[in-house]
Specification:
The relative contact order is 0.05. A hairpin with a 2-residue loop joins strand 1 and strand 2. With 486 residues, the chain is mainly alpha-helical. It has a domain of 136 residues. The protein has 28 helices and two strands. The chain has a two-stranded antiparallel ribbon.
Length: 486
């Protein structure tokens, strides 16, 4: 078992001074293996907690890392040994940091700058040293708010843009996973550190790079990295930073950017997570999803439907707007206050208007209208009508104002017209029936209006029966009544 003084002496034996004076650590296989074995012995020592609290040991570790990183090797074999030694010393550091706050403080004081240098070193990146370097940072911050605050501030403002992009492009999946663990862990439950991510010089670059990788992680079924990316954005969404993230993801073109599509995928994941609590940000989410996104892109959706544009960009718009509507649906299901917001901001006529335009511009897709196996062109926005009817169905439930508003906007015939099968909108008939039920409940005016339609064109009888109503004739006039009165 090594004593502290022996451990310090051992590390000093492979310091840069020794190396530049011709020490055989890298040049001789036996000396190299002895160094690796010695470091492994320190890892297994029962005195690790004592070692971790030694200022001298951390000074020696930093000196070894700095010397190895900057030393020039004469051949590939020496280079391989050099980076194996750096990895071994980083692994030792990770383990010594388990000694607690005192070891974290010493590591931060004597080793932090060297970790930042390793992350930016081209050869260290090529030799996959980013992961152990980042793991050391994670351990340095674990359950230590003071160190986390200090390291987080420096981490977010350390590199110029070209250097940071070089680092991020050099990360393999494992290294990126550790980076995401570090970011999510550093932000944690801190509103202040979350805000600093967006206010810093490097924070937006991190977020852009993460969004650029989300689709790749999904396509490659890299669930760990996707879940960690989700964790980072979940924290930002919780603290009402979604509008700022959305702006960062923009590329100033008319269509939504790929990054904005990825961001909406993460928002949808957030709102469909089991037991998600939106009480802190329900109004901010409502305003963002409706005002900043739905209203901003509604005219473009109508334009694409009208001109029947089917391009890569419109396919992206289709995915984007459907995720937006799905997120609105989830939010309305979670929050009564979000429903109040939509009603107060007069969103119902806007949703209804888009539904009406879609009904006018896009014919129902049935077995008779074409091969059901053919993929629908993007301008048909498959599932758009279904999601709009679903949103209206939520908003109309037990809400007299919305019931009347839909009737006054001419929406009753529009909803009734969707009580049919449409292969582009698989469950639209069921959604429409539920919406009709909500429109008719305890509303004599709506019941009378629908009865008048039934008298002219009896095509809605089956849907009305499913909604719990049946037609009857009183004094020569058609009216509706509940099949099972409450």
């Amino acid at each position: 078992m090594a004593t502290l003084s022996e451990a310090v002496s051992f590390l000093n034996g492979i310091t840069p001074t020794g190396l530049h004076n011709g020490a055989a650590v890298l040049q001789d296989q036996s000396a190299f293996e002895g160094s690796i074995s010695g470091i492994a012995g320190l890892l297994q020592s029962d005195s690790r907690s004592t070692f971790g609290q030694s200022e001298d040991l951390w000074i020696s570790i930093s000196s070894v890392l700095s010397g190895l990183r900057t030393m020039t090797t004469s051949n590939q074999e020496e280079s391989t040994r050099k980076y194996r030694l750096i990895r071994a010393v980083l692994t030792l550091s990770m383990n010594l940091l388990t000694a607690g706050p005192s070891s974290q403080k010493l590591a931060s004081e004597f080793m932090k700058d060297e970790l930042f240098c390793i992350l930016a070193d081209d050869k260290c990146i090529e030799n996959s040293l980013c992961a152990p370097c980042l793991k050391t940072m994670v351990n340095m911050c674990a359950s230590n708010d003071n160190i986390t605050d200090e390291l987080w501030d420096e981490f977010l403002n350390k590199y110029d843009e070209p250097t940071l992009i070089k680092i991020l492009l050099g990360l393999d999946d494992e290294s990126y996973m550790v980076l995401l663990v570090f970011m999510a862990g550093s932000m944690g439950s801190s509103a202040d550190r979350s805000a600093k991510l967006l206010e810093s010089s490097d924070g937006p670059i991190f977020l852009i790079n993460i969004l650029d990788k989300v689709d790749t992680w999904v396509d490659n079924e890299n669930h760990s990295n996707f879940e960690l990316a989700y964790s980072v954005f979940k924290i930002l969404i919780r603290y009402n930073h979604l509008p700022r993230c959305y702006k960062i993801a923009s590329d100033a073109i008319a269509m939504p950017s790929d990054r904005q599509v990825s961001l909406m995928r993460l928002v949808d994941a957030y709102l469909t997570t089991e037991n998600v609590d939106v009480s802190q940000n329900e109004l901010g989410l409502s305003e963002f999803l409706y005002n900043d996104v739905f209203c901003a892109y509604k005219p473009l959706v109508v334009q694409v439907m009208t001109k029947k544009i089917d391009k890569v960009e419109t396919q992206r718009l289709r995915v984007f707007i459907l995720d937006v509507l799905e997120s609105i649906t989830s939010l309305l299901s979670l929050s009564v206050n979000a429903q109040f917001f939509m009603v107060k901001t007069n969103a119902v006529p806007e949703f209804l208007d888009l539904l009406r335009r879609a009904a006018d511009l896009i014919a129902r897709r049935t077995l008779k209208s074409g091969n059901p196996d053919d993929e629908s062109p993007s301008y048909e926005f498959p599932s758009l009508k279904q999601k709009l009817v679903g949103i209206l169905g939520i908003l109309v439930h037990d809400n007299r104002k919305v019931q009347d508003q839909i009737r006054e906007c001419g929406g009753l015939p529009v909803i009734l017209a969707h009580c049919n099968i449409d292969d582009n909108n698989p469950f639209i008939r069921e959604y429409a029936v539920l919406c009709i039920k909500g429109l008719l409940d305890n509303n004599d005016e709506n019941q009378a209006f629908v009865a008048s339609l039934e008298a002219k064109e009896p095509v809605t009888t089956e849907a009305l029966e499913e909604a719990g109503y049946e037609t009857q004739i009183i004094n020569g006039k058609v009216s509706l009544k509940r099949k099972n009165p409450r």
